[in-house]
Write a structure and sequence with these properties.
99 residues, mainly alpha, 0% strand
Length: 99
């Protein structure tokens, strides 16, 4: 194996990710080594939640104090409401075929 070896032929793990890598233009190991990400998100700075501004991308840290598991039965009325909401949303955005 050398730097010109296609990633697809390197082994099973590389073969699994080869399609995704090819979309980024990475076909050989040399391409992989010289690939520089378009951006880097730094999550090391943790902000206090009371200082976060709207539209800001931040990292906050907290503790989950309680988790509840709620099971709900979906009735026919609920399904009708969902379909009406889809229809209204499609009218709002000018869509002809709501999905």
């Amino acid at each position: 194996m050398n730097l010109q070896t296609p990633i697809r032929t390197a082994g099973r793990v590389f073969k699994l990710f080869s399609r995704r890598l090819e979309k980024l233009g990475i076909k050989t190991f040399e391409d992989f080594l010289y690939h520089i990400p378009a951006r880097y998100d730094d999550y090391s700075l943790i902000s206090k939640i009371n200082r976060v501004q709207p539209g800001e991308i931040v990292t906050i840290q907290g503790t989950v104090s309680q988790i509840t598991n709620e099971l709900r039965k979906i009735s026919k009325d609920c399904k009708k409401q969902k379909s009406q909401m889809k229809l209204e949303r499609s009218k709002l955005f000018g869509l002809t075929n709501p999905t």
